[in-house]
Amino acid sequence: MIKRVWIQSFRNLKECRLEFDSFRHLYIYGRNNQGKTNFLESLFYIGNGKTPSTSDMDLLVNLNAPVAYLGADLSESEEDHRIYIKLDKINGRHMSINNTEIKTRSALLKHCPMVYLSADINRDYTTTPEARRRRINSVLEQLDPEYKRNVKQLVTILRQKNALLKHEFHQELYDIYNQGICNAAPTIVKKRQWYCNEVTSRLKPLLEQVYKNEFKSIEIRYKSRYLRNNDAIADNLYQCIKDNSFKERQSRNSLYGPQRDDIEIIFNGLDALIFASKGVGRTLSILLTLCDLMLLAEHSGRSLPMFLLDDTLAEIDDEIKQRVISIIQDHAQLIYCTTHKHDRLFFRDVGVFKMESGELINETSS
Fold first, then answer.
1. What is the spatial distance between Cα 321 and Cα 149, in angstroms, rounded to a whole number?
2. For the chain: N or C, fewer Cβ within 10 A?
3. How far apart are CA 144 and CA 90, in angstroms?
4. Which structural domain range is residue 92 located in?
5. Helix ranges restricted to H, 244-341
6. What CATH number does the domain containing 89 carry?
7. Separation between Cα atoms, residue 17 and residue 144, nearest integer Å
8. Which tens digit of pLDDT belongs to each residue from 238-291?
9. Which residues of 102-112 are buried (b: 16+ CB within 10 A; e: fewer)?
């Protein structure tokens, strides 16, 4: 967790130094366009070597300064680390950990993991099947090298097959590519099914805690147009492609395989992607993110990353909001920015600050 942070000349932020001696979590409120998101992105840069929005140095350093400085003291598993970052418009970026220069972002990710959740968090789960697959892949590729290899192999074969369908068609090559897709599919599908079961088991007690008696059931289901028998995934897929080869040739695109699969989130017996309210959808998205991170933390042996929430709890009822905040605080260090002052009442062990024209004003004791 972060014990101390200092920031100078990052975007519109005034120079600041924060000590987390008397509190673990941080609550920042203020009007729009005052610097709340900039503050969260400065923390995210310390942990990731980039911001969620841009890596352009000219957009990160204050317009009236040539250089910006970011730093943090961290404490994890009884070990202390100091991260220092210098962003220079002319000479580029300099990063160090414990006074040792680092060249890549990977070391930052190891020592200071962070997750940034904005108010449009729902898009990861509600926009497209591709977005949901991308989210699942990002978790499973960190957990399982074999899964990552199979996904990479599948992507390569699909690129070749789609090029074949778009240009001069050869039946023999088409069959070879289809066999390659079918060989990669079982590992990918079974690991995604495992993911659905693991996340469901972690999500259920969290939803019971949030919704109490209103909660009845939750299930994350894997959806596939070709899967008939889990013991014969490759055969099921090969037959499906064979039966629909005319459609693929007409569309000039590969239409069947793990690259087209999806998930369903069944909440209280209904498809949450269709029937859930904005508040319920947002709550599910936040808790699903937490479950993903719990899964990664359990398998890596590391603590959960810091949560940076940028008005993420908007459109959630106060009672539900308080329970969600409590759950996050039980598992991770939380930095929360919002336009609402009264939400501070939902936090414990928290430092309270107002953001005004890029300046953090301490109101912890007020």
1. 40
2. C
3. 40
4. 2-113+307-362
5. 245-251, 272-275, 278-300, 318-331
6. 3.40.50.300
7. 40
8. 999 999 999 999 999 999 999 999 999 999 999 998 898 888 999 999 999 999
9. beeeebbeebb
